[in-house]
Amino acid sequence: MTGSGGPVPPGCAIVGRDGEREELAAFLAASGGQALVLRGETGVGKSALLDHAAGLAAAQRYDVVRAAGVEAEAELPFAGLHQLLYPLLPHLSGLDDGHRAVFDVVFGLRAGGAPSIMSLGIAVLDLLAVAASQERPLLLVLDDGQWLDASSIEVCGFVGRRLAGGSVKLLIAVRSDVASRFDTAALPELPVTALPDEAAGRLLDLRHPRLAPPARRVVLEHARGNPLALLELPSSVGAGEPGGFGAVPLSRRLQHVYGLRIERLSGPVREELLRGALDGVGAGPGGSRVSGARYRMREADEAVAAGLLEVDPATGDLVFRHPLVRSTVVQLATPNQRRAAHAELARMHRDDVERRARHLAASRVDPDEEVAAALEAAAESATRRGGAVAAVAWLTRAAELSETPDARSRRLGDAAFIAGHAALLDQAQRLVRADPAPGRSESPATAIAAAYVALYEDGDVRSAHHRVAAAIEHLSDPHHQRAGVVDGGAEVLTRLVDLLLATSLYAGDSASWHRTEQLMDALGDRVDPRSAIYRDAWSDVVRHGAGVGGRVERAFADVSALEPWDVSRLAVAAYHVDTLGRYRPYLRRAVDREVETGAVANGMTMLHLIMLDQLAAGEWDDAERTGRRALELNTAHGNALFAHHTRAYLGLLAAVRGRVEQAREAQAVVDAWARPRGIGFLTQVADAVGTAAALSEGDYEAAYLHAIGITRPGAFEAYAHQAPRTLLDLVEAAVHTGRLEQARRHAGAALDAGLPGISPRLAMITYGAVAMTTGDDREADDMYARAEAAGGGFPFELARIRLAHGVRLRHTQGPKAARPLLAGAAGTFEQLGAAGWAERAQTELRATGLPAGASPVHLAELTWQERRIAELAASGLTNKEIGERMHLSPRTVSSHLYRVFPKLGIASRAALRDALAKAAH
């Protein structure tokens, strides 16, 4: 027989409850009668476990009787007991007259004095014994036991403690956050706790597989492993916050979980809870230890007694028992109550610009310029610490509260600009369409948003460049100077110029750069100094790169004053002049924050830069991991330009490692996408990939043909950013294909263009290229020495130069002179994983008479960085001087030397020169 309820419906699988299900199976399989109480917070899944147990019992030929406590009947004596026993009343005929009379009295069928709990309990035990048998045992299932009347609970407790020896089992579910007499019934208990994080995620994905990642994080954070919340929250979480920090909208069912208890509180206590909820007081242990000074709830013992608050053991502060309590408090408040609470909290946080502004904004309905300005200041603060998503929301609200159309338009434009950097391109477009200024051509904000979408979503550099250039011309027109002021003045102009520079960088052609430079020249001193750095570094480093490294360093002097996007733009400039390594720590500290807090596009750029510096520094495994992470991020946000940009760099890494098929596949994909769109930056990188892949497998003819696709020998094409970067590639390919004249002309052009003065890397490869092509041995020795002196921090290129030097020495001075250089090159290539180059170096080593696979023992034990530091130290440089040359701290240099000494079997710096010379023979 069954009462209400039944087994678990199909498709409603229980997730993460293996231990509880095993306990229930053992409970049902055990011989004899017994009772068990499932205790857990509201919505934790007790009912699902009761359903599961009922299903198991039915399959084992139990008769199942089900009942559920009802809060409205909690004051009716024996109402719960009547519900539980009602299906068994036909068995009363099997009892003696005395026990039948007891039931008649308690169920109101005849008059008489109320029996004692003991006599009624004994009568219930007799009834259960009649109803159950060995062949058909009986399972009583009672849900929401906390709502049973006190008399019924007393009887259930009495009976439950005396079931041993029979064929009856009693299974009761009660809420742990509601006090009841079951708390002292002394029955065995099975705690039902919140789901672990992994199980909570599985349940959410099972029931809501298409939930967006941001919404998924919010649901998991607020549900805290509560299955009911995991199932109910997704349908309402996208509706936005109902006005509080950390509160989310709740369904009627979730609101009911705590709503009745909140509504029973006195007015002052509800107001106290509302202030705490709106100020983001946390839930559970550690709930008060959140960033910033939060409101401290006081005089709320009534809420503690109701199971809505608890005391944080670490701080003694009152915190919400569960995030759902906080959300319910906010949702039950009226709009006027919430606004009044926000106004009071704004006064409390008068010294915290962001929190005060947020509360002020929520306390107002009508336009208020003072509040709008406060929100604008808060958005600027949030932007500087990486809170792009919050900044967009606050600027949008500031626009809504603006008192003039011009201020509204300006703030919407600012929001659209930050949304573009957050990779929220659709939102950026919606923002600029939100309040089009009447009777006016396209606003700068519209131009910026449209250009971002065109550039990053589809790589349309032509239309993006045209649109931004037109907007700059519009602001520069004397007839529109007033409009320029309205549209944000210098700040908006700088944003337009910087975006124009970015589109020109990707276009990589003379026409785009000529127009860009004409516009910037016309702007004169209205161009921001940082924008001038970007132009000189990004456009043509051969012609404009001198001195850029120092300008970047000065701009980075106060990094805390820079906007996040200026950090990444300055780092791009540093990459073009090969000083990126010194700024990588800034990027590492910022990138996770940028991605997590919403400035995703900026985070993507930072990941590119970190990968490039890892590639340059010889950290190739790390570079590949960084590139894969960037590609996943690009793809997830639909940023096609950055996705292909990342593929290009991954292709370049594959090429230098000798993974030729992988490199050429990446080259083909990037070239096929970029060339029709006129994205010269990426087509040049694709050509560089082809060059590196061909060099890696020793196909010098193919390498030469790829290299001259970037620039012709003896010249550095204007605005071809890969031309100086592939200098060594073109020269090596030309030398190995017998084009010695072209190689000499190209190396000479690099020297004449002043490349050594632009960056340490360009100095190294320029001197190396001249050394490879000169017929004068003395000049070659001098140039190789200069290359060695400039080469710290770029192990792959330095190893190539050492390989070429070693080959030359073998021909001019004999095998013995060549071995140290060839061994050093071979060791570096092996450590980097540059398979093709390592094989070539080993071949040259064998030509010196060294057995196959042999290398000087001690040198082979040193990393390329340790070897380089040891060589510089042996030449007499101090740790500080070595650190400056290799962009390391003196302490790091000292640590490397500490490891080098035992590897070489020496104990002092003075023995370095002899040890290195001995190890090389």
From TrEMBL:
Residue ranges of every copy of the HTH luxR-type domain listed in the record: 855-921
* Classification of source organism: Bacteria, Bacillati, Actinomycetota, Actinomycetes, Streptosporangiales
Q: Which domain of life is it from?
A: Bacteria
Q: Name one Pfam family in it.
A: GerE
Q: Which UniProt keywords apply?
A: ATP-binding, Nucleotide-binding
Origin species, per record, is: [Actinomadura] parvosata subsp. kistnae
**What is this protein's name?**
LuxR family transcriptional regulator
Annotated InterPro entries: AAA_16, P-loop_NTPase, Sig_transdc_resp-reg_C-effctor, Tscrpt_reg_LuxR_C, WH-like_DNA-bd_sf
Cited Gene3D superfamilies: Winged helix-like DNA-binding domain superfamily/Winged helix DNA-binding domain
PANTHER family from the UniProt entry: TESTICULAR SOLUBLE ADENYLYL CYCLASE, TRANSCRIPTIONAL ACTIVATOR DOMAIN
> In its keyword annotation, does this UniProt entry include ATP-binding?
yes
Q: Name one GO cellular component term.
A: cytoplasm
For molecular function, the Gene Ontology terms on record are: adenylate cyclase activity; ATP binding; DNA binding
Q: Which GO terms describe its biological process?
A: regulation of DNA-templated transcription
